[in-house]
Amino acid sequence: MRKTRIAFLILLLAGCARSRVIKVNVINNSPEKISNIIIDYPSATFGIPSLAPGKTFQYAIKVTENGVIKIEFTNALGKTKRFPGPAVSKDDEGTMEINLTQDTAVAEPKLQHR
């Protein structure tokens, strides 16, 4: 019985090890809808079909490779916009705000490199 409790405690503690993620907030700071938003980061991508004016979309990413984030979206006039974002490294953690307007994308990372 004691060995079972110790094994359970070890598994519990191993499960408590936190994953290093970047909490991303994509914010539409424009007066019109932005659509087809793609955030491409090393080893993965996530997308947002559309984001209404003044709204925020939250997503957590786990960076497993070094590289640069790429941001793409379609503005209200149907024009596709592409912007380079900041460089990220494997196991970075922290937050990043990506502020979108109809013509720009500005990423503001607050990251801790491990």
Structure characterization notes:
The structure is a single chain. The protein is about 10% helix and about 55% strand. The protein is built from 1 helix and 8 strands. The strands form 2 sheets. It has a 4-stranded mixed β-sheet with strand order 4-1-7-8, with no helix packed on it. A 4-stranded antiparallel β-sheet has the order 3-2-5-6, with no helix packed on it. A hairpin with a 4-residue loop joins strand 7 and strand 8. The protein is elongated, with a radius of gyration of 18 Å. The relative contact order is 0.24.
Count of DSSP H/I helices? 1
Largest sheet: 4 strands, mixed
- Residue stretches low in confidence (pLDDT < 50, at least 5 long) are none
Distance between the termini: 39 Å
| Rg (CA only) | 18 Å
Q: Would you count the extended β strands for me?
A: 8
Percent helix among the residues?
10-25%
One letter per element, helices H and strands E, the order comes to: HEEEEEEEE
How much strand content do the residues show? over 45%
Mean pLDDT: 90
The computed structural class is: mainly beta
What general form does the structure show?
elongated
Strand order of the largest sheet: 4-1-7-8
